[in-house]
Specification:
- It is built from nine helices and eight strands.
- By secondary structure, the protein is α/β, with parallel strands linked by helices.
- Strand 4, helix 4 and strand 5 form a beta-alpha-beta unit.
- The protein is globular and about 45 Å long.
- The structure holds zinc ion.
- Zinc ion (ZN) binds next to loops.
- The site of zinc ion (ZN) has 5 residues, from loops.
Length: 256
């Protein structure tokens, strides 16, 4: 049984064939997922999805692209949303110096404010970090009580080991199946199995052989299969281990 630890199933690209996707997920053995917010509307949508479907849980927060909307008023709204029992994390939050749509200082400020909220509420976080490894780790170290996952991990093995040492998890998307995915492969091979999460990040990051197409949660077993191959295990073993890891991190009850 597979758990997609990072999906954006509220994306408008899923509106037309939503029911078909749910049927495909069931068929693929994907029995649970975390729907992740990027801004206020998608955070509210995540909560709504989690209310509607018993196998969906939600994260709320502002992605670095939305960092310029994070102020005390927005934090207060997220604090309210977090009172919902099916909200299990703050995310996705973090730093993106690749696109840098928002100035770095603004991104850092928003990241810190949301890490502080996670600390206050004793919730884990879902971190998006791209080309900002040093600042990302520095801010993580400012909040030693906060744990979480670096999703769609793109850093080095050394940094992954640093995160694991701090009790964090590493999330892998379809990128690990790409031919040029040397770095992600190295990390997926070498970190402890009990620190690995799998995810689609759908509608983005479709795994091979669907690369470039719209991704959806029914494809997360392809990520598990690749990691299984790297580690000499069965895909089901990776599915089971990563589901347990996600349930442990996000405090999601068993069943379903
Ligand atoms: Zn995402």
């Amino acid at each position: 049984m597979y758990l997609d630890s990072h999906a954006h199933l509220d994306d408008e690209r899923f509106q037309k064939d939503f029911e078909e996707i749910l049927a495909r997920m069931k068929h693929s053995g994907v029995t649970a997922m975390m729907n992740i917010g990027c801004d206020l509307p998608s955070s509210e949508n995540s909560v709504r999805l989690a209310e509607t479907y018993p196998w969906v849980w939600a994260a709320v927060g502002s992605h670095p692209d939305d960092a310029d909307h994070v102020d005390e008023a927005r934090i207060a709204v997220y604090r309210e949303l977090c009172k919902h029992p099916r909200v299990k994390a703050i995310g996705e939050i973090g730093l993106d110096y690749h696109y840098e749509d928002v100035p770095r200082e603004v991104q850092k400020q928003a990241f810190r404010m949301q890490m502080a909220l996670a600390q206050e509420l004793s919730l884990p976080v879902v971190v998006h970090e791209r080309e900002a490894h040093e600042d990302g780790l520095r801010i993580v170290d400012e909040f030693p009580d906060v744990k979480g996952v670096f999703h769609c991990y793109s850093g080095s093995l050394e940094m992954a080991k640093e995160l694991v040492k701090r009790g964090w998890y590493i999330g892998f998307t379809g990128v690990v199946t790409f031919k040029n995915a040397r770095k992600a492969v190295e990390v997926a091979e070498n970190i402890p199995l009990d620190r690995i999460l799998i995810e689609t990040d759908c509608p983005y990051m479709a795994p091979e052989p669907y690369r470039g197409r719209r991704n959806d949660p029914s494809l997360v077993p392809f990520v598990a299969a690749k990691i299984a191959q790297l580690r000499g295990l069965a895909p089901e073993d990776i599915g089971k281990a990563t589901s347990e890891n996600a349930r442990r991190l996000f405090c999601i009850e068993e069943g379903k």
